[in-house]
Amino acid sequence: MRRLDALKAVYGGLEEAIVVTIMGAVAAELQSIGHRPNFFYLQHAMGLASSMGLGIALAKPDRKVVVFDGDGSILMNLGGLTTLARYRPKNLVHVVFDNESLLSVGGFPTATSTGSDIAAMAAAAGIPRTATVRTLDEFTASFGEALKADDLTTIVAKVEAVGPSAFVTDLALLENRFEFQRWLRQH
Amino acid sequence: MPVSTTSSRAIYDALKGGGIRLISALPETWLVHLIRMAEEDPEMTLVRLAKEEEGVGISAGAHLAGMKSAMLMQNHGFLASINGIVSCAQLYRIPLLMLISYRGEFGERDPWQTEGGGVTEDLLRALRIPFAYLDNVSHVAARIRKAQTLAGSANKPVALLLCRDLMWEEPA
Description:
The complex is a heterodimer of chains A (187) and B (172). With 187 residues, chain A is α/β, with parallel strands linked by helices. Chain A has helices at 3-10, 25-34, 49-59, 71-75, 78-87, 118-125, 136-148, 173-186, and strands at residues 18-21, 39-41, 65-70, 92-98, 101-102, 108-109, 129-133, 153-158.
């Protein structure tokens, strides 16, 4: 499964959701499909996209929040999985695209390439709904169920280690930040 | 334990009065009463962290969604949060209200607190984070209010150092 295809497959379901992504390929690919004012791309601070998602989910409990995380990022904030589980926001869908590498900095393998299992760690942290998916159909089904489910979900989507040719887009960081804030406060 | 209940109450009331509705915290001795007050307040969301840097992301998310928050941490927790402060809060111009217990200053008896105490202010200055001391209960409310005002107008992290003279009641 390619991450870009996975994003395209669920893009239609993101219209009403609040979306937070990590930096690099995930941000560039989602923007290549089409930026929306309810999408925020955390272009640094690796590990904190899931924490931002938690803060938003607690502040806006009536709206779905989707975090598109990565293996390299969540490995920097594994403790955050225990915090997610502890407060268990029912409106949060946490997707981890696991390409078993730090693609944006040259493709060095992460620990998931040698067997570390993020879904198992999420479950052990106490996250009530977890899954590892390997095909586009599995991902689409699992994501759809998570959006409908009234509980915290972590989906680990195993994807190929391929990405866009460039990571910098023409959307300025602060433009994205203030547009996103305005959308959140109006919806 | 001689952590000042009076000072903790003054700090808590000022945060509450400033509209703070979410507090992230990692326990440390001087913060025990503040964390308990947050826990017992049905109007406050208390988020207990595994590591302080998470609090930067949580506060950033809460801010963008329109909820005012504060972070309670020890100065070593501030040290552990610096990448998040720089590459989330400062990069994206997010106001953070950080209340940092200032361990390792004059009067510190725990040897393990002394190294972090010695670098706290220099790091705040290096990061250009505006800060002030909370060392007397008489100015707690005003300084917290002013810190919040600057964080909001500048869209930047600010810090208040919770000092021994305010937090710790020991015989003179």
